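Quick start: what a row looks like.
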Amino acid sequence: MTGPGYGLDDTSAEGGHTGFLAVVDAVDDRVDRLFEPLRGIPAVDAAAKVITGVGDHGWLWTGIAVWRGRRSGPTRRAAIRALGVAGVSSTIVNAGIKQVVGRERPDRTDLRISNAGVPVREPKTSSFPSGHTLAAFTAATVLSRPGDRAGNAFLFTAAGLIGTTRIHLRAHHASDVVGGMVIGTALGLAVKRFR
């Protein structure tokens, strides 16, 4: 299940990774095995497909920004600005990192996912970082507000669930999702500071 091709030359003579990347591969394989008993359960697979689907193209975050900006005034302007800046910056950063790293997606040949639920868009870009997760954590960070515990908990729980579904559907390695979380949160904090 390990995905060669990190854009880095850290391979042994046998073709496997060495050093840090070997550790990353081992952790990714272990996490993938933890998800295996849940794969093929129609209700779990359907939920994963729906959750990952609302993360496609920022649908969830657009809906949240619309809700947060439902009243005219500074709150609406802040919500629209936050969503726009988060969407553009996360797209640019994600594409740039994927181009540099060039990591292969997980092998899906033996993936057991039921046909329940909505179809899932087939990934076409490289694997690191998870773009769904990066965008989710960027948007959650930018749209979060001081003192809004319930709203912020919802935002980050939704972002975490989107990342988790990317592992369940084997669209990404666990380390791709963690990378998306870290980069997305950092990007969101930077956007909040300078918007």
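That is the whole record. The chain is about 65% helix and 0% strand. The radius of gyration is 18 Å.
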